[in-house]
Design a protein that fits this description.
By secondary structure, the protein is an alpha+beta fold. It contains 4 helices and 19 strands. A hairpin with a 3-residue loop joins strand 11 and strand 12. Bound molecules: the ligand N[C@@H](CCC[C@H](N)C(=O)O)C(=O)O. The site of the ligand N[C@@H](CCC[C@H](N)C(=O)O)C(=O)O has 19 residues, from strand 4, helix 2 and helix 4.
């Protein structure tokens, strides 16, 4: 079976997008996702995205990390799919329904409302998620937030100096996080500007993470570090994040299509 795909990215966080709205795909096993996402032997991507029909929304977006696991949300993929859909659209995900619309700066996404309860992150046991009494080798007192998927945010003097390649996997898999976690290290440059690097659950270091930018901005706003409208600078470029009224988060930034191709399902099944 020949399957067409679209290679897309948001600030360098890249995706293989499969459109199963008109022609259903066979069941996606973790091994198939890993093989397709493999940068040496497969097509290569941080996340595999599958678009399906949805009864209530414009479409459903399923998100698979490079490690094969299916997850709840992906901010950069939301902008990429928003670009494909072209007009104001709603996208159902495991993490909730989000809304996209074209904007002068690319695609604007209504990402929904953040959650802060320890059970909603989720954490293994109760604690204050605004200043968690935990630490890993100098990274201390993080803020936890769920923006459809789980994030922990460390505010540090210089995010570029943090050994995220070794600390990221350690924290991601700590038993405090029953569903593992995305790890953000952020430096507040001023009250409207944040510098951010992200170790993504199931994908490792990426050029950008949209939900990481949302979680970090909300964590900074919630703890009084910034105003309610900030620019978050990731290695791949900037995203604008607003959280005006303690309700829904708006993320605005670019998305791009890189190329289209097709593959033989049997080569990866
Ligand atoms: N790259 C994404 C996030 C993808 C999912 C994440 N790794 C998770 O496991 O929750 C983004 O742009 O938000």
């Amino acid at each position: 079976m020949r399957v067409p795909f679209i290679k897309m990215h948001g600030l360098g966080n890249d995706f293989v997008v499969l459109d199963a709205r008109e022609r259903a795909l066979p069941d996606l096993a973790g091994g198939t996702v890993r093989a397709l996402a493999d940068r040496r032997a497969g097509i290569g991507c941080d996340q595999l995205i599958v678009l399906e029909e949805d009864e209530a929304a414009t479409c459903r977006m399923r998100i698979f990390n490079q490690d094969g696991g299916e997850v709840e949300s992906c901010g950069n993929a939301a902008r990429a799919v928003g670009l494909l859909l072209g007009q104001p659209a709603t996208i159902a995900t495991k993490g909730g329904t989000i809304a996209t619309r074209p904007d002068d700066a690319g695609i604007a996404v209504d990402m929904g409302a953040p959650r802060f309860d320890w059970q909603a992150i989720p954490l293994a046991y109760a604690m204050d998620t605004a200043a968690m009494p935990v630490g890993w080798e100098g990274l201390e007192q993080p803020v936890a937030v769920n923006v459809g998927n789980p994030h922990i945010v460390f505010f540090v003097d210089d995010s570029d100096a943090v050994r995220l390649d070794t600390l990221g996997p350690l924290i991601e898999t700590d038993e405090l996080f029953p569903e593992r976690i995305n790890v953000n290290v952020a430096t507040v440059e001023d009250r409207a500007t944040i510098r951010l690097r992200v170790w993504e659950r199931g994908a490792g270091l990426t050029r950008a993470c949209g939900t990481g930018a949302c979680a970090t901005a909300v964590a900074a706003m919630r703890t009084g570090r910034t105003e309610r409208d900030v620019t978050v600078h990731l290695p791949g470029g900037p995203l604008r994040i607003a959280w005006a009224d303690d309700a829904r988060i708006t993320m605005t930034g670019p998305a791009a299509e890189a190329f289209r191709g097709s593959f033989d399902w049997g080569d990866y099944a």
